[in-house]
Amino acid sequence: MKKVTLHTLQQQKLNKEPFAVLTAYDATFAKLIESAGVEVILVGDSLGNVIQGQKSTVPVTMDHMCYHVENVARGVSTTLIIADMPYMSYATTEQTFHNAARLMQAGANMVKVEGGSWLNDTIEGLTQRGIPVCGHLGLTPQSVDALGGYKVQGRDDAQAEKLLNDAKSLEKSGASLLVLECVPSALAKKVSEALSIPVIGIGAGSDCDAQVLVLHDMLGLNEEFQPKFVENFMALAKGNVKDAIELFVKQVKDRSFPAEKHSFN
Ligand code: KIV
Q1: What gap in Å lies between CA 152 and CA 143, rounded to an integer?
Q2: Residue 1 covered by a domain
Q3: How many domains is the chain built from?
Q4: Protein residue with its CA nearest to atom 8 in ligand 1
Q5: Ligand 1 site, residue 46, Cβ cutoff 6 A
Q6: What is the extent of the structural domain holding 241?
Q7: 257 within domain boundaries
Q8: What per-residue confidence (pLDDT) applies to 170?
Q9: Is 101 domain-assigned?
């Protein structure tokens, strides 16, 4: 397989071919995910929850992120790697450039930041310096305390309009991808159609250009955490990890995942 680039993903959006994204935090899973045909790995700060057992992503640091990005990068050769910029690592311009460079040097191909149009200058500065950026709107876990919990976002007209405008401004500032987390399907469809960059959904319905899930969630490893938007692919694949990941890829590509039951209206 050829190296997946942003150009590849952009082309897939144009051709209406959805692509699959999974989180990974270590070399062994990264290799397995790549061999199952997943185009993009997100080294998410969800590692706070699923690796460290934290209650949120807030305690995750740059040192944690770099360690896991290095491990994932050793496991893959063709998959595109996105690395989350953790909590407060992009609060000032100086911090942003320094920390994004650390993630790129650890092996990432692009960085992801959570938030709306207040990030315009940050994204412009990073892209001018050759660092591709993925935005993240909707439920942004680093702001869980400000949002008052893990809730669906963009439910009323004013929120939906703000989210759409934020998405457009992130694209205008130079973002090459956008993650939309936990928003009603109709809004996600509207955003995906309005933007020319690929939109990656999680709990955002089947009309996005790509789908992402947290690896541990789609393998059903945490019995206490089974949100509506997650499918337990491990159960569907009768306990075989590689089959579970391949099934996820297949269902993303034929748009049978996410189904209506995984989506918010
Ligand atoms: O950290 C993460 O895994 C994420 C996904 C939930 C999109 O940001």
Answers
A1: 13
A2: no
A3: 1
A4: 44
A5: yes
A6: 6-262
A7: yes
A8: 98
A9: yes
The CB of 60 under 6 Å from ligand 1? The reply is: no
Given this model, what pLDDT does residue 116 score?
97
Instruction: Tell the residue nearest (CA) to atom 1 of ligand 1.
Output: 44
52 falls within a domain: yes
Ligand 1 centroid to residue 114 C-alpha, Å: 10
* Residue range 34-76, pLDDT digits in tens: 999 999 999 999 999 999 999 999 999 999 999 999 999 999 9
Where residue 15 sits, what CATH number does that domain have?
A: 3.20.20.60
Name 24's bridge partners: none
Q: CB atoms < 10 A from the CB of 200, how many? A: 28
Residues of the chain with pLDDT under 50: none
| 42 Cβ inside 6 Å of ligand 1 | yes
- Per-residue model confidence (pLDDT) at position 203: 98
pLDDT for the residue numbered 157: 96
User: Among 34, 171, 181, 231, which one carries the catalytic annotation?
Assistant: 181
Known catalytic residue at 181: yes
- Given this model, what pLDDT does residue 9 score? 98
Q: Is pTM beyond 0.85 here?
A: yes
**Ligand 1 lined by 209 (C-beta under 6 Å):** no
Between the CA of 201 and the centroid of ligand 1 the distance, in Å, is 10
Task: Compute the mean pLDDT over every residue in the chain, rounded to the nearest whole number.
Answer: 97
Q: How far is the CA of 211 from the centre of ligand 1 (A)?
A: 11
